Fold this sequence. Notes:
The structure holds two protein chains of two kinds. Chain A contains 16 helices and 15 strands. By secondary structure, chain A is α/β, with parallel strands linked by helices. Chain A has three domains: 11-27 and 290-424, Nitrogenase molybdenum iron protein domain (Rossmann fold); 31-152, Nitrogenase molybdenum iron protein domain (Rossmann fold), CATH 3.40.50.1980; 178-276, Nitrogenase molybdenum iron protein domain (Rossmann fold, 3-Layer(aba) Sandwich). In chain A, the strands form three sheets. In chain A, strands 1-2-13-12-11-14-15 form a seven-stranded mixed β-sheet, with helices on both faces. The two termini of chain A are 32 Å apart. Chain B folds into four domains: 12-135, 3-Layer(aba) Sandwich (Rossmann fold), CATH 3.40.50; 159-267, 3-Layer(aba) Sandwich (Rossmann fold); 272-412, 3-Layer(aba) Sandwich (Rossmann fold); 417-520, Proto-chlorophyllide reductase 57 kD subunit B (Helicase, Ruva Protein, domain 3). Chain B has helices at 12-22, 40-46, 62-66, 69-84, 95-100, 104-110, 129-144, 172-186, 200-204, 217-231, 243-257, 262-267, 272-277, 295-308, 324-334, 344-354, 363-372, 397-409, 415-423, 459-462, 475-483, 486-502, 510-520; strands at residues 2-4, 26-31, 55-57, 88-93, 117-119, 159-165, 189-195, 211-214, 235-236, 288-293, 312-318, 338-340, 358-361, 375-378. In chain B, α21 crosses α23 (510-520). The two termini of chain B are 46 Å apart. The interface between A and B is large, with 68 and 67 residues. β4 (73-77) of chain A pairs antiparallel with β1 (2-4) of chain B.
Amino acid sequence: MSADPAPTQPLIDARGGGVIRERGQREVFCGLTGIVWLHRKIQDAFFLVVGSRTCAHLIQSAAGVMIFAEPRFATAIIGERDLAGLADLNDELDREVDRLLARRPDIRMLFLVGSCPSEVIKLDLSRAAERLSERFMPEVRVLNYSGSGIETTFTQGEDACLAALVPELSRDDSDQASLLVVGALADIVEDQFRHLFDELGIGPVAFLPPTSSRDLPAVGPSTRYLLAQPFLTDTARALEERGALRLDAPFPLGEEGTTGWLKAAADAWGVDPGRFDARTRQARQRARRALERHKQELAGKRVFFFPDSQLEVPLARFLARELDMRLTEVGTPYLHREHLAAELALLPDDVQLSEGQHVERQIDRCRAAAPDVVVCGLGLANPFEAEGITTKWSIELLFTPVQGYEQAADCAELFARPLRRREALAI
Amino acid sequence: MQLTVWTYEGPPHVGAMRIATAMKDLHYVLHAPQGDTYADLLFTMIERRAERPPVTYTTFQARDLGADTADLFQTSVRETWERFEPKAMIVGASCTAELIQDDPGGLAEALDLPIPVIPLELPSYQRKENWGASETFYQIVRALCAPPPEDKPQRLRPCCNLLGATALGFRHRDDVEELRKLLDQLGIDINVVAPWNATPADIARLADADFNVVMYPEIADTAARWLKRMHGQPFIDIVPIGVSATRDFIEAVAELTGVDPEPVLEAGNARLPWYSRSIDSTYLTGKRVFIFGDATHALAAARIAREELAFEVVGLGTYSREFAREVRALAKELGVDALITDDYLEVEARVIELQPEMVLGTQMERHIAKRLGIGCAVISAPVHVQDYPAAYSPQMGFEGANTIFDTWVHPLMMGLEEHLLGMFSEDFEFSNAARPSHLGGGARIEAEPDGDGAEEEGTAVSDQADGAEEIPWSDDAQKTLSRIPFFVRGKARRNTETYARERGIDTITSETLYDAKAHFGR
């Protein structure tokens, strides 16, 4: 398909295809949204957003998360009075943190999370975190990162959070190679990967983020790390500054992605190919069998991705190669060529990539492309459905375990169900 | 700085979005970073609207701050005009853009668009959603409403405007329909409904009507007062929620317009009065209810609860600080302390303290009640997708009262179920430990703080006690307590402990429990 010529700056990417780069209205969450899953993952951490009423409203609305009695996140809402003088604001923050920690003695790690307003007024949360850490260590470690929408897009919030954890990791000076899996994964996925690495004789293996802030892994020059998520640019850079080496791999989505991902670790550990094949064969076959049913439904169907989580490129690769779907435009908020190198190499040649967003123009391109299914955010999905265009809302791809062999079919199911539903409905 | 877990209201620009989204041919250009686009999903997901809200965000980024965010804003306004061709535009800033002080109003005016462009000043660090909606509606009315024609056309029937229904409102869609029907029966025409489905052209002719109906004072009070001041339009702000309030409303309309209210009062299709009198409703008598919501719905609920269902209102509160006075006045009349707060934890603490048998609240109170195993009906925003039922479910008018009867009575146990539970509390299937089927079954969560970690996150309720030291219960007293039906057990425990404390009793026995029962029983 051809793009609107005016906003397009076709660039030649690694594969020789054009990439649309746009600026305009972005219809994406900010990095604060990551708190929704991070606060469930790190079970002794608390996320205190320093921001406005909008920030508080965003987090409670974004995922409909009003299900926990008292969640491990809150917002310190900046008021008119606070904007009068900065010294005052720091005192106020200290007071709120005092109250919070008195109320929640179970908390071991506190993240002060910066927001658009706190960034604009240049409230220095790193100094606040240092000051508070001095007071509350060793019981509570206080860290900070920015989830602001002027600096982070959706999943970049997790990146900023994990990058803030890296300096806290103890130093590993040993010669023994260790594997670090980076990026929040569902517990069940983590268990499966741990088991597979065990089977392959790869280890020791640690996960970042851990379930408990007291179990932070060590890192050093003998650390090899695998990214489990494609949006961890800053975390990767911070790990490399600590001497860790990234294992280049596709992301563990689908049978092929998972195999490539595991293989990268296996190769680094010198696992015999025969052994790799033997120990993964059963799971690979099971995943392929499970995908067969979905393939019948999805093959030939055309999919269009609006930019959202940065998972778009690996997902598109999975849909194209394992389910024979056809790709129209694959939009992503940020195209990290280095981390995505293995993915981009696997994409079909005729895909239109786009980076950034001008939502109105993208909607026009989407309508013109008339895809069978559109992957988009919650603000766009129902209006598209009302136009007769089937959608898959993208946030579900973050809240559902989709990585690894056993989840490959679940991932496919997320795309197949909306299509099946549209066909089933006779009204 | 205020620590907030959940908020009852969004920021004021979300209020402005509720007005813009309710209207037709109006577009809102909002100077805001990308994260603020989350607000679209409130309308497309929660309210299930089939169109995107008519809102364009500039989505400026950190790198724009050093450059020219003002230019970005003007580009957005220009592109919005070209793409959507609205008949009027509102422009403003969200909390972050407010800090960079770009003056959206001035910037938009400089573009000299051929349509009215209305600037909004919504102080995000001071005000909240309902205020933002009210202010936006007022500014739109002020800017667009034309003076009435010199010689008003002769009409056969009086006519009025219905003011205040917005997008993302609690049952606004159906309330508008119900009032339309009711006023039509009274012989009154509707000039304009606004902002609900109104165009800028409709706003222009508001002054043609004989009077205004303020459906939701939180939204329309300011605009209605301005219309009265500028164009001499009287308004009626009796909110017709409940049978008595609907009757009052009808009589007020009749008095203002001279129509005969009797046929409508007589023919009123209210089933609530008879249902409430029928003997199977006897068990509703004196049910202890806690009420919390926006001021309009909380006030209406208190009156219905007391006068139309014979409940006992044990607590009343609102998060609408703008209407705190009215809520305080009614609370005083009811002999309870008004709870004026937007702190969800404070509301939860009050519910735990009061141990009501039912909570009438918002979605937040629904969560509190669910955790405590107390029945709950939702009466007010903030809303959830469940608050947009497919069926016609108004709150206003006689049909609204019928809906309310059904919704409120449903979470309560039927009289017989209650008795059986009390008599045979150790039946293995029908026991104290089981949550009643109408609350979803499963294990019960004790409302008491010593519910051995049953609640999901532990500390939420544990620090609620009044600081008094605990008095131990003997095994035999514990057993007796466990035989008391769960829905009064919390109250029994509290009364017994108070009784024991007052008398310096060091261990609570069954005797203490029965003594307390006799003491507190009426």
